[in-house]
Amino acid sequence: MQLILIFCLFAAAASYSLPFTSELDEHWGHFKNVYSKSYTSTEETRRRLVWEERVTSIVHHNLRADAGLHSFRRGLNKYSDLTHAEYMDTLNGFKARNHFLERNGTTWFPLSNVDIPEQVDWRHDGLVTPVKDQQSCGSCWAFSTTGSLEGQHKKKTGTLVSLSEQNLIDCNTDNNGCHGGVMDAAFEFIKSENGIDTEESYPYEEAGPVRGVDPPPPEMKGPETGRGQCKGPLSIAIDAHHESFHDYKVGVYDEPECGNGISDLTHAVLVVGYGTEEGKDYWLVKNSWGESFGVNGYIKMSRNKNNQCGIATMASYPLV
């Protein structure tokens, strides 16, 4: 009887020692159910602690947003149980390399006698495929590459075709698959191969690179790729290493700590338009972290604000 009593006391003490906030138990359960999360007991303890810390940070930010101190709000998404280091290792994958920064560039000339619209959304023109999810793979460079090529291919042919990121991850040896890359190297690869496979013929599996395996026959051929100026989605790289970006939910993202140099760029995304919201200019950006990120997979990033987050530092697109 004494042993049973001692065991019960020990169990009770252990339960009180768990470093969880009990008020969040229900919300943790919802998070796991909504995003189909499954952990071992040890892993769940670690993930719960990471998640709770993120919840606290989000609540503090949103209270400040309610007071008018921020122009955007943060929120949970399917990756909210990842540490900052894991975000950087698995969801950021832009790796700038100098020998690709100076190739195929064109000189920008200021526009004259051109009526520039106040707002653009290339989704309305059918130039943008649905939001994709790179999952636990630093392949954002591949998604940015296919995104701009999909738009230009649609402009030329009238048909929007989802293109294969896995083709690039597996076969583009100038980039490093899930360990990062740069869009210009991918454009050069597509040019050298006279095309790229479709998503349907070569679906995304996130693993890579796979050597010694021939890809399926390509179903879409013909893009000539280079860089220049265009009307359509643009491949860009940004500084996305801040927690505020990872948790962005709605509003115009404004992060004064963002860098805009080449060395600051960590993540590749796709600009699909621009506009103004409540007096704040923004770029409309398609991410590749699934639809739980931001507004159904999109983020509005500050525009006309000293190239915040380096959004204009490395913009490019393919000539088709």
From TrEMBL:
Higher taxonomy: Eukaryota, Metazoa, Ecdysozoa, Arthropoda, Chelicerata
Mitochondrion in keyword set: no
Gene Ontology MF term list: cysteine-type peptidase activity
InterPro entries: Papain-like_cys_pep_sf (IPR038765), Pept_asp_AS (IPR025661), Pept_cys_AS (IPR000169), Pept_his_AS (IPR025660), Peptidase_C1A (IPR013128), Peptidase_C1A_C (IPR000668), Peptidase_C1A_papain-like (IPR039417), Prot_inhib_I29 (IPR013201)
Family per record: Belongs to the peptidase C1 family.
Domain Cathepsin propeptide inhibitor: 28-87
Residues in Peptidase C1A papain C-terminal domain copies: 116-319
Superkingdom in the source lineage: Eukaryota
CDD domains in the cross-refs: Peptidase_C1A
Pfam families from the UniProt entry: Inhibitor_I29 (PF08246), Peptidase_C1 (PF00112)
Keywords, comma-separated and alphabetical: Disulfide bond, Hydrolase, Protease, Signal, Thiol protease, Zymogen
PANTHER family: CYSTEINE PROTEASE FAMILY C1-RELATED (PTHR12411)
Keyword Hydrolase belongs to the record: yes
Residues annotated as signal peptide: 1-17
SMART domains reported for this sequence: Inhibitor_I29 (SM00848), Pept_C1 (SM00645)
Protein name per its UniProtKB record: Cathepsin L
GO BP terms, alphabetized: proteolysis
Disordered as annotated region, ranges: 205-227
